Structure formats: C-alpha cells, structure tokens
C-alpha cells in the first residue's frame, strides 16, 4: 500500500466533479488522490456501474484514486440495534465495491468511539462483513492513546488483519495532549498499526503543536522501511482549487525538507 510522492485528499477542493478533480490533480502533478467517497462526498455507493467505469478511466489517464473515505464509524458495523448495523454494513459493502471499481485499494472508516464493554465484546467476537477492500480506521476520539484503548485496538486488529489504521496528524496531535505522559508511547503504538498518513491542515498550519511531531515520527519510520502512503488534507477556507493547491505545494515542500537526512556533524 504505497505510492510515490505526496498525494491529496479531495476534501480540500469543492465545486469539482470526479473527472474534473482528477484532470486538475493530474495537471498539477499530484501523484494520487484520496477520494471522499461517502454521502457527504461523491457518494460512490450510489453511482451507476457506467459512471464508476468512467471515473476509473479518468484515473488511469489523469491520476489514480488509491483510497476512498466513508462517513461510517467502525462502531456502526457492530452497533447493537440490528437495523442500524445492517444499514451500515450494506453501505460499507456498496462503497468498497465502488471503490474497487474505480481502482482504490482501501476504504477509510472513522473511529469516533473508543470501544468498551458490550461494544468491545461485539467487535472482538462478532463477525465483520467481508468486503472488497481492506479497511483503515482513522482514530478521531482523543481517548485512543490511553493504554487500555490501545490494548483493545491492538487486540481487535490482531484478530482482524483486514483492518489497520490511518494516522491523521491533527487527530493524533489532539490525542497526544489528552494522553499526557503516556501520549508519545501511545503514538508509537498507533503508528505501528498505520498504513496511511494524512498531513492535516485546517488553516493553523502543519507545524501546529503536536502535528509536526506526529509527522516526524511517521517519517522516521519510513526511513526505517515502514510503508506509509502520505497525503495532504486541507480543511481550511477557502476550499478553492488555488487555495488547496497552495497548501498542497507548501506541505509537499515541507515534507520533502523533513525527509532529508540531517547534515553530518563537523
């Protein structure tokens, strides 16, 4: 699960349909795109096979879509109310099939809930629906870096190898400050499980407290051979092509600079 260079998450641009987005990204030499795939984005699950085939051809000509993001939470797949759980699983199945149809290699789920009690038991013992693509969980709750939460996450992922994590610099920076003295050790445990990194910028910059640390720890792992797919996530304003491109270029240069080995000591 790797791609050369730094890609772009489509959440940073508004007003373009998928073919326009991919044509624009390709013209800017963006190497790959992560596509916002749920109902709040391009709603892949409700596109026709003909549309999906067209989008795949656009990706082959312009720039590939390597992953798609869902609006679903991991907990939705195990929620106790049967109708809600069934709807979430159907949505995931459709989205994963659509993502595979356009050439994507993974689907991102949200992780807004730290599993405890009956929910954790359901996640560990219940059946996970088999879908077309691997799943990446983006840890949105600041409590994920607590040792007990990470124990649960590691157990869950050990039992379900089709799930791994997506590391977002903004989300993990917030979790670092909530976790206190155990935060950095928890961050390392999350990065062990991560396959994708989002360099997140909401307008406060990539060097906002904690974010540069998360990025550097991931970069150190890449230097040691761990495989990460890295993309820029611009969530500030405005979400125009020019604003997004400016932020993307800044982040790309910033990442390249951080990737250089330090100068030799005199």
Blueprint of the fold:
Blueprint: E1 6-9, H1 18-27, E2 33-36, H2 49-61, E3 65-73, H3 82-101, E4 106-111, H4 117-125, E5 135-139, H5 147-159, E6 163-168, H6 169-179, H7 183-192, E7 194-201, H8 211-223, E8 229-234, H9 241-259
Parallel strand pairs: 1-2, 1-8, 2-3, 3-4, 4-5, 5-6, 6-7, 7-8
Helix pairs in contact: 1-2, 6-7, 6-8
Would you kindly provide a brief summary of this structure?
With 266 residues, the chain is of the alpha/beta class. Helices cover 44% and strands 18% of the residues.
**Strand order in space, largest sheet:** 1-2-3-4-5-6-7-8
Order of helices and strands: EHEHEHEHEHEHHEHEH
Count every helix, treating DSSP H or I runs of 4 or more residues as helices: 9
Indicate the low-confidence ranges by residue numbers: none
**Beta-strand segment tally:** 8
Textual characterization of the structure:
The chain has 266 residues and is of the alpha/beta class. Helices cover 44% and strands 18% of the residues. The protein contains nine helices and eight strands. It has helices at residues 18-27, 49-61, 82-101, 117-125, 147-159, 169-179, 183-192, 211-223, 241-259, and strands at residues 6-9, 33-36, 65-73, 106-111, 135-139, 163-168, 194-201, 229-234. An eight-stranded parallel beta barrel has the order 1-2-3-4-5-6-7-8, surrounded by five helices. Strand 3, helix 3 and strand 4 (106-111) form a beta-alpha-beta unit. Helix 1 packs parallel to helix 2 (49-61), helix 6 (169-179) runs antiparallel to helix 7 (183-192) and helix 6 crosses helix 8 (211-223). The model has no long low-confidence stretch (mean pLDDT 92).
């Amino acid at each position: 699960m790797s791609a050369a260079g730094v890609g772009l998450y489509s959440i940073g641009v508004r007003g373009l349909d998928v073919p326009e987005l991919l044509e624009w990204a390709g013209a800017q030499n963006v190497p790959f795109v992560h596509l916002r795939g749920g109902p709040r984005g391009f709603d892949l699950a409700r596109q026709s096979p003909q549309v999906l085939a067209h989008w795949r051809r656009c990706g082959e000509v312009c720039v590939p879509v390597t992953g798609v993001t869902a609006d679903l939470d991991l907990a939705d797949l195990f929620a106790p109310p049967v109708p809600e759980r069934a709807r979430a699983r159907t949505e995931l199945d459709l989205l994963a099939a659509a993502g595979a149809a356009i050439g994507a290699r993974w689907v991102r789920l949200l992780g807004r809930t730290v599993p405890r009690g009956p929910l954790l038991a359901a996640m560990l013992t219940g059946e996970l629906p088999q879908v077309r693509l691997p799943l990446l969980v983006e840890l949105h709750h600041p409590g994920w870096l607590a040792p007990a939460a990470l124990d649960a996450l590691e157990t869950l992922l050990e039992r379900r190898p089709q799930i791994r994590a997506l590391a977002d610099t903004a989300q993990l920076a917030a979790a670092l400050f909530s976790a206190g003295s155990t935060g950095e050790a928890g961050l390392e445990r999350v990065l062990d499980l991560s396959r994708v990194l989002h360099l997140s910028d909401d307008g406060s910059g990539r060097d906002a407290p904690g974010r540069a640390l998360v990025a550097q720890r991931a970069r150190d792992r890449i230097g040691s051979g761990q495989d990460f797919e890295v993309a820029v996530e611009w969530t500030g304003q405005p979400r125009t092509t020019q604003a997004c491109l400016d932020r993307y270029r800044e982040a790309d240069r910033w990442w390249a600079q951080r990737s250089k080995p330090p100068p030799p000591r005199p």
